[in-house]
Structures are given as structure tokens and as C-alpha cells.
Design goal:
686 residues, alpha+beta, 5 domains, five-stranded antiparallel beta sheet, four-stranded antiparallel beta sheet, 26 helices, flat
Length: 686
């Protein structure tokens, strides 16, 4: 009999941030196992339910009994199964393990040889015989870092479990998981439900839970209802929401029957920087702040209640009272912080350890000043403003507000710098030096902010790498990959030499603190990160060809890559790439570098023609390259196809005469240098 399978685990409130992941894992494991055992079709899809107090799924068209299993066991090869007309020990043992006589075995070909085999039909298992074990397996595979026990039992789960529903259609499947016996009843909303909710049929689970239990069981449905209610309330107030999807997901995981309410707070709190107020509302209270048409925080906010009541005023007032206390704390921290200038906080950074091998945050600040000043000079920016911003960039780390809300580092420094009367570029750089904080984040605005942001990330990269804390596998505790990506995104838009910047950074550390070759190692690491970054927009072979030359200035890369792409479209490109690959292989074995070619030793017409073509083209290519016209420089190489083909068709490079051989290798080295002026085109060969 085919019917819908329903599985529900009723628990105490589950971790909200982990709820979608737990539900998806629970459903995926059960579906995979049921498909593997052929209880359900391979393309069957489950409905996944996840609320604060339940993980559940329903799966349609599930068999009550598994299909018959046609089993084949393969044994010894026929050629080795008999000796002198008698079964070998291996064959006799195989028959015994199958519970049959040798005469009952069959022979078949396994694709390589004929073998003895035993075929049998095994009756399918009942769903009720295996389901409890499958549920237990799915629970063990959940991505849960910590488990807990409850009551006097030895069972463990992320939260105490109070109920188990196992139903096939309208039929209860008897089973036990975590010490609980299955049933056809569940519990609805803690306050809105009248008590036990009976599930008459697996197909009716979602509708019954909503109508009788006041629970919107499906996570996505609940999320969409909240989103719509929030949007309608914000539109009614002429506002926009100052929140992200992460908060919406978390709130969805906290409620079973969402009702959006509007509340407010005293306008006097708006004197506190709005970032502080928004973070307090979102992080501590899970409220949705509102912005006016100018992007300024309003003293109104939205909250998602887990209750529907005729008079929600008590709920609104209670939440306003709690928020008022939180905002009072934020205002107190802000007012206390203003009693001390940023400059005077610097001494306290000496007591904040950055890393025990490379000193305190104050020592780090001194390095940042030197690096930021050097970068600003190269950018033609105000060196003194860059040094000042770098000096104050970390001062807010020892402020009360950042101590309470670490996410506000940089933001509070910007506000305090303005209150201290610092120049606006300095204030903006204090906030902007953390950018980009993640993939897709905005870059710092202005040359001063860019100089400090680069300094901050370069210092982290070189310092942490230099003491041996190199990223491995998925371990990157100091986020060096993210720092490298931030550096690359900025340098791609600036006329800066990355290798020069790394050397500048390494020089700010005391002698002996870092590994000797740290600048070179970090440069190689950055190039690898750059390959991954560029691969999202360009072909991998084109990226490899350009980065094979290890360019230290990255700003021209988009033009270089476009030039390589245009070269690949030339009819001569494939042949020239293959020839360059051949040249590189010869030079690699010979260990030769470009050098003068002795025209007197060019005895073959083809090598004379190639030498003349390389000599005539080198100046033109160099001039075109210097002018930044990389596409034309590469296109000029097409003129070499015929002389290169003729050379390899008629000239023996490894001549017996040592002088002639060396001269031909020198000619190829000069050819390779010309080939690789823009990119290593050998990497474009198929």
C-alpha cells in the first residue's frame, strides 16, 4: 500500500539560528535512506516542516513493505573453483556461507571472467520494522555541536524531546525513538492551542496543525507571512526596514503563530548614533528598526509576537519597556565614551594583546601608521591624514560601546573622531578601514581610507603568515583568505605594486619577528586567491596565462585578460600557443635565459628568418606594450606563425656543434620572451 509518511519530533524550543539547517538535514537523511531501501521512488520530494518546537516531514507515495530484493553474491572464479573434479576450499567455503551446496551455485560472467554465484530473492522488509532505526540515524547525523540529557534518562539530543509521531496514511507505525513511543497526536501552540492535536491522516498534518494548533508548521510559509506583514506595516508608516534576511530567518524560527505589531520609543534616544540603536534592537531584542525616506532611524519599530490577541497593548508596552532599558544602556555607554578622547585611549591598547609573537595592539598601531603613510604617499594622498587615521583606527576597541557591541568597531571610532574634531577624512577612514569585510562588501571610499584599509589587511596578512599561522584546508582562524581578497579587490583598482606593498609591510616588523621570505610567500598566496577571484568572470586558461608572469601591478589585469581573449580568437593562436609550449619545454631542459644571438652562427635559412622576425618585432611589441595596447601587442605575434613553423620543420635545435646548439637555444629564449610579454600563451594550448 502506498501512502504519505509523516514523521514529527516534538521538542523544547530548538536553537533558532540552527533550525532550518536541522530540519533540512533531518529530512534529507530520512529521504535518502528510504530511497536507498526502495520504499519510495528516487525522484520523490519531501515536505519539510520546522517550527520552534518541532522537526517534521511528510513524504508521499511511500510503500508499507519494501519490494522483494533480488540478491546476487559472487564467489571464486570458475577457473579456480575446481581441482581434480572437486571443489576447492574457497568454493566450498563460499557455498557454506550462502547456506547451499556447491551444486546449487550458478555461473555468470562479471565482465572480466566467469565466476560462481548464488542468487536468491529476499522478502522486502516492513516499513514499521525499519522506521525507528532510520529516524534514530537521522537524528545522529544532525549537525549539532552539543547534546544534552533531560530528566533521568540517558538519551541525548539538542533539546529535550516530548513526542514522536510516525504515521503511514491514517495508520500509526509503532516505534520508539529517544525513549518515546510513537503516537498520532501532537501539541499545538503553547498558549493558543486547546491542548492535544489529533492527526487523523498524514496528509492532513499541516492543515490540522494550523487550524487546531495555531502553528504554521512550514518554515518558508511562516517566513513569508512575517515578511508580508512587516512590509505592509512599514508601508503604512512610510518607512523602510533596517534589517536583513538573517534577522527574518531567526525571528521565523522563534515563533509558531506570527503577528507583527508596531511599537515605539522616546525620540530623545535618537541622539545616540543610529547604528548603536539598530544593533541593540536587532541583536538583543530581535526587533525590526524603521528608517525614514532620508535613511534616518525612526523612533518606531516593528516586533513579531508569537501571540494573537484582541488587545495587544500589553504586549507592545512590555516590549517598549524592555527596549527602553536597552537603549538607556546604549546612551549611557555613548555618554561615558565621550568623556575620553580617542587619542587618550591609545595607551590602553598596550594592554591588549594582538598576538604574543608580534606584540600588542599599540605596537600594531605603530606599524599601521608607517604602512598607511607609505601607501598614501604612493597614491598621492595626504600622508599626515593617513597616519593620523591609522593611529586612531583601533582606539575604539577599548571604548565601552565597542566592548558591549564588538560589531560597532570602526563605526563608533568614526563618531567619536567627529566629536573630537578630527578631520572628516580621518573619521571616515576609521570606519572604512574595515572594508571590504566580506565578499561583495563595498570598498573604502577615498584615498586616505583606502590607505588605512590596505595597511590593516596587509599587516594582518604579513604578520600572521610570518609567524607561521598559515591557512590550511578549512582552517583559517585569522581570516587571511578574506584579508587577501580585500587587498586584491583594492589593488585591482589602484596604481600600486603589490609586491612592493608587501615588502613595505614586512619592513615595519622588528628584525627576527617574521620568516625571512614572508613577502614572497604572501605574494604567491595572493596570486592563488586572485585566480579564484578572477575565475568567476574570466576563463581559467586565460587567467592562468596572465598570472603565470606573476604581475605585481594588478590594475592592468582586466585589459590584459581582454587582450588574451582577443588573441585566442586569432586563426594563428592555437599554433602559436602550441609552439610556445614546445619552446618552453626545450628551454626548461636547457635552463637558458634570453641573451644575444650570434648572427654568424645562424646557418639555416629558417633560423635566420626567425631571428630577423623576432628582432624586427621585439621593438614594436615593446613599444605597443608600454603604451598599454596589450591586444595589439599580442595580435602582432600572429606574424611569427610562418617563421616559427618553418624553424621547427627544418631546424634541429640540439645540433651536435655546441656553439650552434647554444645559439639556437638563445634564439628560442628570445622568442619565448617576446611570446610572453603579455602572458604565457603556452598555457592556452590544448
Amino acid at each position: 500500500m502506498n501512502a504519505t509518511l509523516l514523521i514529527e519530533l516534538l521538542t523544547e524550543e530548538l536553537p533558532p539560528k540552527a533550525l532550518p539547517r536541522l530540519a533540512a538535514s533531518f529530512a534529507q537523511t530520512l529521504c535518502d535512506e528510504l530511497k536507498k531501501m526502495q520504499f519510495v521512488a528516487a525522484d520523490a520530494e519531501a515536505s519539510v516542516f520546522a517550527s520552534p518546537r518541532r522537526l517534521a516531514l511528510s513524504l508521499p507515495e511511500v510503500l508499507a513493505v519494501q519490494p522483494e530484493q533480488h540478491l546476487t553474491r559472487k564467489g571464486p572464479a570458475v577457473s579456480a573453483g575446481m581441482k581434480d573434479g572437486k571443489p576447492t576450499p574457497a568454493l566450498a567455503g563460499f557455498a557454506r556461507s550462502c547456506g547451499v551446496e556447491v551444486a546449487d551455485l550458478i555461473t555468470l560472467n562479471d565482465g572480466k571472467q566467469d565466476v560462481y554465484a548464488w542468487q536468491t530473492v529476499k522478502a522486502g522488509q516492513s516499513l514499521s520494522d525499519v522506521l525507528s532505526d532510520l529516524v534514530a540515524l537521522a537524528l545522529k547525523k544532525l549537525p549539532v555541536p552539543k547534546l544534552m540529557r533531560w530528566g533521568d534518562s540517558d538519551h541525548q539530543f539538542v533539546r529535550p524531546v516530548h513526542g514522536l509521531v510516525l504515521m503511514h496514511g491514517a495508520t500509526l507505525i509503532a516505534g520508539s525513538v529517544l525513549g518515546l513511543s510513537s503516537r498520532t497526536q501532537t501539541l499545538g501552540h503553547r498558549f493558543l492551542s486547546s491542548g492535544v492535536v489529533a492527526i487523523g491522516h498524514a496528509d492532513a498534518y499541516e492543515a490540522t496543525l494550523e487550524s487546531e494548533g495555531h502553528v504554521v508548521a512550514r518554515f518558508g510559509e511562516r517566513r513569508e507571512r512575517i515578511r508580508q506583514q512587516l512590509a505592509q506595516a512599514a508601508e503604512r508608516l512610510g518607512a523602510t526596514l533596517a534589517s536583513d534576511d538573517a534577522l527574518l530567518d531567526e525571528v521565523t524560527a522563534l515563533v509558531e503563530w506570527p503577528v507583527v505589531l508596531e511599537a515605539g520609543f522616546e525620540a530623545e534616544f535618537l541622539a545616540v548614533p543610529q547604528e548603536c540603536l539598530i544593533l541593540t534592537m536587532q541583536q538583543n531584542q530581535k526587533y525590526f528598526p524603521l528608517l525614514d525616506a532620508q535613511g534616518r532611524l525612526m523612533n518606531r519599530f516593528l516586533l513579531v509576537s508569537n501571540l494573537a490577541s484582541r488587545d495587544p497593548s500589553a504586549v507592545i508596552q512590555g516590549n517598549e519597556r524592555v527596549l527602553r532599558a536597552r537603549l538607556s544602556d546604549a546612551r549611557f555607554f555613548f555618554e561615558q565614551d565621550q568623556k575620553v578622547r580617542l587619542e587618550s585611549r591609545l595607551a590602553r591598547l598596550a594592554d591588549v594583546v594582538y598576538h604574543n609573537k608580534i606584540g600588542s595592539q599599540l605596537e600594531r598601531v605603530e606599524r599601521l601608521q608607517a604602512i598607511a603613510g607609505g601607501i598614501a604617499e604612493r597614491l598621492g594622498a595626504d600622508v599626515q591624514l593617513a597616519r593620523r587615521a591609522a593611529r586612531l583606527a583601533k582606539a575604539d576597541l577599548v571604548s565601552d560601546m565597542v566592548g558591549e557591541f564588538p560589531e560597532l568597531q570602526g563605526i563608533m571610532g568614526m563618531h567619536y573622531a567627529r566629536l573630537d574634531g578630527e578631520a572628516e577624512p580621518v573619521a571616515l577612514a576609521i570606519e572604512g578601514h574595515y572594508h571590504p569585510r566580506f565578499a561583495g562588501d563595498s570598498l573604502p571610499q577615498g584615498a586616505v581610507a583606502t590607505a588605512v584599509a590596505l595597511a590593516d589587511k596587509l599587516e594582518t596578512l604579513v604578520g600572521i603568515w610570518g609567524i607561521g599561522l598559515i591557512p590550511t584546508g578549512d582552517k583559517d582562524p585569522f581570516a587571511l583568505r578574506r584579508a587577501a581578497l580585500g587587498v586584491l579587490r583594492m589593488v585591482l583598482e589602484l596604481p600600486l605594486d603589490l609586491k612592493e606593498l608587501l615588502a613595505l609591510t614586512a619592513a615595519t616588523f622588528a628584525d627576527g619577528k617574521l620568516a625571512p621570505a614572508v613577502a614572497d610567500d604572501v605574494f604567491a598566496f595572493c596570486l592563488e586567491r586572485l585566480k579564484n577571484f578572477l575565475a568567476a568572470e574570466y576563463r581559467a586558461d586565460e587567467v592562468e596565462a596572465v598570472l603565470a608572469l606573476a604581475p605585481t601591478r594588478l590594475q592592468p589585469l582586466p585589459v590584459l585578460l581582454a587582450a588574451v581573449a582577443a588573441f585566442k580568437r586569432l586563426p594563428e593562436a592555437a599554433a602559436l600557443a602550441a609552439a610556445n609550449k614546445r619552446v618552453n619545454n626545450i628551454l626548461k631542459k636547457a635552463g637558458a635565459a634570453p641573451g644575444p644571438v650570434d648572427a654568424a652562427l645562424l646557418v639555416e635559412a629558417a633560423e635566420q628568418a626567425l631571428h630577423a622576425a623576432v628582432r624586427d618585432l621585439t621593438g614594436k611589441v615593446d613599444a605597443t606594450f608600454a603604451a598599454g595596447d596589450y591586444a595589439t601587442a599580442l595580435a602582432m605575434l600572429s606574424q611569427l606563425k610562418e617563421p616559427v613553423d618553418a624553424f621547427f620543420d627544418t631546424v634541429m635545435v640540439m645540433a651536435e656543434d655546441g656553439a650552434i646548439r647554444a645559439n639556437r637555444i638563445a634564439l628560442l629564449a628570445n622568442l619565448a620572451a617576446l611570446f610572453n610579454r603579455v602572458a604565457d600563451i603556452s598555457l592556452l594550448a590544448d
